[in-house]
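Prompt: May I have another protein with tokenized structure?
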Amino acid sequence: MMAASPPIFYLIPGLGADERVFQFLRLRGEVHVLHWLLPQNSAEDLPHYAARLAAAIPPEQACWLLGVSFGGVLALEVAQLRPLARVVLISSFVGPSELPWIGKLARITGLYHLVPPQLLPRLPRVAGWFFGVKTGRDYQLLRQILQDTDPGFTRWAIARLLQWPGRTSPAAIRIHGTEDRLLPTRTAHSQYILPGGHLIIISQAAAISRILNQLAAETAALSAVA
């Protein structure tokens, strides 16, 4: 019997973040980070943007597609074009009905256009509270990521995020934090619930690594039997 090939993971970070949010994961397999691309223009929609991200994934390749927060939204869109991908959402959501009330209000009124995207980098302590950061290490990492975030990309992404109609397929495995202030009620829809806030990808990296490695191993075992 041939040994199963190691799993392949494609990781999509959250809004404005990069591969630094994945630095504490320990995944047993081949790992690729899908880096954010600059929008082609201010009106580029998410399906078109996702198609450009999906170009990095061979269509015939079975893989795990992991998206964090806004990256989860893109993971669901990319999966429409890569049906062999198994989607894992971390601190994310599948449609506007799962937004908190302030997100729904911003979606309806369009008031998000009035919020300068440079606001959170200028208020790192406020950002730290919203993201549920509790340690100095995580705070410093969040602060660096916010400082490096491109305001133009943030403005485009927030507009696309709040106008996204959602995706109910493919079915996604969901991991969420108990103290997530940005998406506070999504634990009801999650198979895995971990203590922590919106940045459990950092604070609970060890637990998330165990979950992902176990899922990949179980899937490989089932495929071998089939």
